[in-house]
Write a structure and sequence with these properties.
single chain; 4-stranded antiparallel beta sheet; 388 residues; mainly beta; globular; 1 helix; 32 strands
Length: 388
């Protein structure tokens, strides 16, 4: 089993409905002929991207819209990163295969251009994100490398290398890129890059031993986790960074656990991981508090994505298996359902359209079927995907 299903197989089984009238309706997007598919990202105009097996078992990247259904856009690598789609639905970023090998090769795709190889002949490369202008971020490496090289690619400049031992994490539509320097060069550090200013350390005063950036929003606010160690222990606190204020600890030890911010909405909603003292949970920060959103009845919850009001991911039910969930201010934790077995919600757009994967209950795992899913809000204005 590939990609998302490799994560899901650690969890499993029965859907627990916790609302008599679920606030989301599940739509099975099907496959390209095989048993497995998974949706990995959704644009703000309802373009869904993901992967699917053909009847032959070959893995392919797909683009889905309400008007076209699931469209095969080319072979897909198992390695290194998920597919991404720009907010406007024009650009897709991912990793195809070097012909005759299993090596990943970075690409961007649009309806107008088709699949564009942006690897510039490098043997290993992958994309981690793409914005509305077609700017892509990712890494490349040589087969003998022990470190990766971060890059930015644009249609006008081609590949711009940011440096070795760096991971490109996220970008926004202004071209601001979040980068982490790995621990191998003196401790992990969170950095920000722009074409005009180059790389800059978010913790310019070196108040923390290590920092890790995870996400950025439209106005350039960056979040992550900062760690400080003494002779007894290391403690990690969630942070928010802005250019005027610098790096600000938004936990300040009040949660009593290690915290790392993993996502930030354009209106400032922050969510992340609570860890230490048992299974990991997800927190949201609104107002002055970091609030544990709990689980679907089991031990742990894992964050995948958010917008300005809703957090999505995977949460354990009482049996210990993982289901796709949405947390909203109004409804709290909601089991999104699907095919009845394990699942995960991987992304959400500004209109509360959620995508992910759901599997059937069959055991052994080799007989299980997993499909890409779209979950659509059932209340409020019509927010179905736009037709082409």
């Amino acid at each position: 089993m590939k990609r998302l299903f490799g994560v899901l197989s650690l969890l499993l089984v029965l859907t627990v409905g916790i609302h008599a009238a679920p606030p989301f309706r599940a739509i099975d997007l099907g496959t390209l002929g095989g048993f497995f598919s998974g949706a990995e990202a959704v644009s703000n105009n309802g373009v869904v991207v993901g992967y699917s097996e053909l009847e032959s078992g070959e893995q392919r990247a797909f683009v889905w819209t309400q008007g076209t259904g699931m469209v095969d856009i080319g072979p897909l690598s198992d390695c290194c990163s998920r597919l991404s789609v720009s907010d406007n639905g024009v650009w897709v970023g991912g990793n195809t295969l070097v012909p005759g090998t299993s090596s990943p090769r970075a690409f961007v795709w649009s309806q107008a251009s088709g699949m564009i190889d942006i690897s510039e002949g490098l043997p290993l490369s992958w994309v981690r994100g793409v914005n509305n202008q077609g700017m892509a971020i990712g890494e490349w490496a040589l087969p003998t490398d022990v470190v990766a090289h971060a890059f930015v690619w644009t249609p006008s400049t081609g590949m711009i290398e940011l440096g070795a031992d760096l991971d490109a994490v996220a970008l926004n539509n202004r071209g601001v890129v979040v980068v982490n320097r790995s621990a191998g060069t003196g401790g992990q550090r969170a950095l920000v890059w722009t074409l005009a200013r180059g790389l800059m350390d978010l913790d310019s005063s070196n108040e923390w031993d290590t920092t890790e950036a995870t996400a950025i929003n439209a106005d350039g606010t960056i979040v992550g986790g900062a760690t400080r160690c003494d002779t007894v222990e290391c403690v990690t606190h969630a942070f928010r960074w802005t250019r005027p204020r610098g790096l600000v600890d938004i936990d300040r030890g009040r949660s009593g656990r290690n915290t790392t911010a993993l996502g930030i909405g354009d209106q400032g909603l922050v969510a992340g991981r609570l860890s230490g003292g048992g299974a990991s949970h997800v927190f949201v920060k609104h107002g002055g508090q970091l609030v544990d959103i709990d689980t679907l009845g089991g031990d742990g919850t894992e964050f995948w994505a958010l917008n300005d009001d809703t957090v999505v991911g995977i949460s354990q039910v009482q049996t210990g298996f993982g289901h796709p969930f949405a947390w909203t201010r109004k409804d709290g934790m909601v089991d999104l359902g699907g095919l009845g077995g394990v699942g995960v919600a991987t992304d959400i757009n500004a209109d509360d359209l959620i995508v992910g994967q759901s599997c059937t209950v069959q055991t052994p795992q080799t007989s299980r079927v997993c499909h890409a899913f779209l979950w659509v809000p059932t209340d409020g204005p019509d927010r179905r995907p736009h037709k082409d």
